[in-house]
Design brief:
Blueprint: H1 2-9, H2 15-19, E1 35-37, E2 55-60, E3 65-73, H3 79-82, H4 85-94, E4 97-99, E5 102-104, H5 106-116, E6 119-124, E7 128-136, H6 140-152, H7 158-170
Antiparallel strand pairs: 1-2, 2-3, 3-7, 4-5, 6-7
Helix pairs in contact: 4-7, 5-6
Amino acid sequence: EELEAALESQTLPSDEILTQIPLGDVEKIQFRSLNSYNRTLNPEKLFNFSGLPFKIHIDDVKSKFVTIYVYIDLEGLTVRQRKYLPLLIDLWTTSPMKKNGTVTDIGGVIKRYNKALLKLEMSQGYSYITIGAQAELLKLKEGISFLSDRINYPYFTMKELNTTVGNRLNVRTPGASS
């Protein structure tokens, strides 16, 4: 009863009031300017892409934040090898790192990630793996260093492999029933 009384006491605004609210004008939107850079589009040779073993594309939207995408080509993999990529991506994102003989446990990896990046994503397409990272412009160097280490120095152990495989096997998928 109380709810019904509350609903009945509510009144909607009149059409006159609604027509006085101005609508947005698409012509008045001020879009940011955008400069793009890659191996073939690099005016004034601002970036040196020649030493990178992967494709990279940079969009400068004149912001305090940077989004980086790295594409890893899967062209040389067989169909059988591609079937293991979801497992590899899971392992890559949950395993420790080993660089110069020093192992950094997953807790240390997460701490470094939180200091360097705002976001890190990995996804698999048919012909490439995409790694997307977002960082503050002031932390770009640390972000790229972390991303490079995360890509180049994963430390896969049987423990992480068994845990990851177990987690994948325990995921319940919806089934059809008749």
